[in-house]
User: Which sequence fits this backbone?
């Protein structure tokens, strides 16, 4: 990579973006190996008050993948968010080699801070195999990425939501108005759709592309729960509880992917959200599901537990 390609760029709202910021995210996912099954990760210098869920999920998947033969690709993961993570201290990832079969490999990872688990993940890897193939088609009424404003342009006009004020390793282009937007039309039963890709070039490492998509999958998914309701956006408490992903076909995370998010159900202070990732040529390459805490403040009370 040339020095020019890694020169820092800025988005329309002045936040850093481009190859240099993407390289920082790649470095964040490149865990330090402490022992054969023990790894350590850190959070970025500019971070949310608690560790971003997509970060700990992506790092945990790296920890799992580093103990698996390179010819076996991850096909699914299932995870629970146990405690909020502290971005000011490292996270230790303890990997358990559950099984190495002829076709499938299973790993469990526990993310630990201050001696307590904050996140757990199970992941399954598979040798390439032939079999039946079909997939749901991509929606046909989707504008091209170039026809949609990027997140920096939105943020410059005060509509960047919770991602405003943070470095942007991903190029995110929201097709439908998100729940935080001043232009949100109100409750809708339609999916929330966006284009996204790594904002630069990534190495040819399939595990890295999968881990980066895992990172990205947590950015907007839970917002699809709120989008179906007419609720106040201030005082709303939201937090990921669990997360699952299935990877159906190879893809590159530095090429455009359509992310379609929809919430099929909400009850008991929780909301369920589903997401589908399509390549620009219409292939369904990944599916995700997440249940999250979604608490609406009552009159005269805040949303704290």
Assistant:
């Amino acid at each position: 990579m040339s020095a020019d390609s890694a020169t820092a760029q800025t988005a329309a709202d002045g936040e850093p973006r481009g190859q240099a910021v993407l390289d920082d995210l790649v470095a964040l996912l490149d865990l330090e190996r402490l022992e054969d099954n023990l790894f350590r990760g850190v959070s970025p210098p500019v971070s949310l008050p608690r560790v971003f869920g997509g970060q700990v999920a992506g790092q945990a998947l790296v920890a799992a993948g580093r103990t698996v033969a390179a010819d076996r690709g991850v096909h699914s993961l299932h995870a629970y968010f146990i405690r909020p993570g502290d971005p000011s201290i490292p996270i230790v990832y303890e990997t358990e080699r559950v099984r190495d079969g002829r076709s499938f490999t299973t790993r469990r990872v526990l993310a630990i801070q201050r001696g307590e688990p904050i996140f757990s993940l199970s992941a399954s890897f598979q040798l390439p195999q032939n079999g039946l193939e079909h997939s749901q088609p991509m929606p046909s009424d989707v504008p091209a990425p170039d026809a949609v404003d990027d997140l920096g342009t939105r943020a410059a006009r005060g509509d960047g939501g919770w991602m405003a004020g943070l470095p942007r390793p991903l190029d995110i282009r929201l097709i439908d108005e998100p729940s935080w937007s001043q232009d949100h039309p109100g409750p809708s039963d339609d999916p929330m759709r966006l284009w996204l890709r790594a904002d630069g070039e990534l190495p040819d490492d399939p595990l890295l592309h999968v881990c980066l998509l895992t990172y990205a999958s947590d950015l907007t998914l839970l917002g699809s729960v709120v989008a179906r309701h007419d609720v106040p956006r201030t005082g709303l408490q939201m937090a990921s509880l669990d997360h699952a992903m299935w990877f159906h076909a190879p893809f590159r995370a530095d090429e455009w992917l359509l992310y379609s998010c929809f919430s099929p159900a909400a009850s008991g202070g929780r909301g369920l959200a589903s997401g589908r990732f399509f390549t620009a040529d219409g292939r369904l390459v990944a599916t995700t599901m997440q249940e999250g805490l979604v608490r609406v403040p009552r009159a005269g009370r805040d949303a704290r537990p």
